[in-house]
Please model this.
Amino acid sequence: MKIVVLTGAGISAESGVPTFRDADGLWEGHSIEEVATPEGFESQPKLVQEFYDARREHLVGVQPNAAHIALAGLEEQLPDDLLVVTQNIDDLHERAGSRNVIHMHGELNSAWCRACDRRTHWTRTLVDFPPCPGCGATELRPDVVWFGEIPYQMDRILAAVAEADLFVSVGTSGAVYPAAGFVQQALRYGAKTLELNLDPSEGSVWFHESRLGPASVLVPSWVDDVLASQHL
Ligand code: BJW
Ligand code: ZN
Model:
């Protein structure tokens, strides 16, 4: 059984990583549009770098929770049949042990040079505009996908969604496309669809089943269900 799991900010909430649309989608009084658009970066580069620097630094002190760990355990049992597509830029899936992960909105611990296009593993700050290790230009920005930019690895994601027997969405509001449209794609190709979320998402009607509650409870319990059904 081929499974695609789409994760969003809600899966990392219990690790202490704030979601976007809680706190009214504000960061220190700034809207998501101010800090997560190319236009926002052009007009206030220091503010945007500080926003991502603060999140990169915060990441060091948080740990994967039971939901990340359960997904990594499922991959261990079904190494060829599980793909995690995450909208999150944290590295908690990897730290829990998941390997088959696509970061469609990029990664906090990566910097992208706008001069030479090189991507560099990055754990320090960017607000001081350090030189790119590849070309020396001071053009590094967070390697993340802002509104108006094209998410990463869309071809691979859409191919996996088309092949999936089961599409599961965990901890995402369903407010941001194209991720919010994957469930309809999965349905069109005949997959079963399941939502695991604290509250019904905006696309709730597209799921055959919605289980409501915290990811740290719902994900391990769903993984147990899958493993039990495999052993029949
Ligand atoms: C729990 C929980 C717990 C809490 N347990 N659950 C009009 C219509 C349609 C589309 C558009 C439109 N106008 C513009 C667009 C396109 C635009 C878009 O979607 N805009 C919408 C606002 C309408 N999209 C884009 O621009 C995208 N690009 C694009 O479309 O390119 C064109 C193209 C696509 C494909 C092929 C070819 C061309 C790019 C979108 C980039 C989004 N970037 C961000 C920032 C990334 C970097 C960063 O992290 O800072 O991505 S914005 C932000 O939102 C971030 C997230 O990944 C993303 C989704 O948020 P998420 O994860 O759903 O979090 P929340 O906070 O919204 O929800 C949390 C959920 O968890 C809630 O439901 C809680 O209940 C739940 N929860 N605690 C379980 N313990
Ligand atoms: Zn460079």
The chain has a mean pLDDT of 96. Residues 59 and 130 are 21 Å apart (CA to CA). Residues 113, 115-116, 118, 132, 134-135, 137 surround zinc ion (ligand 2) (CB under 6 Å).
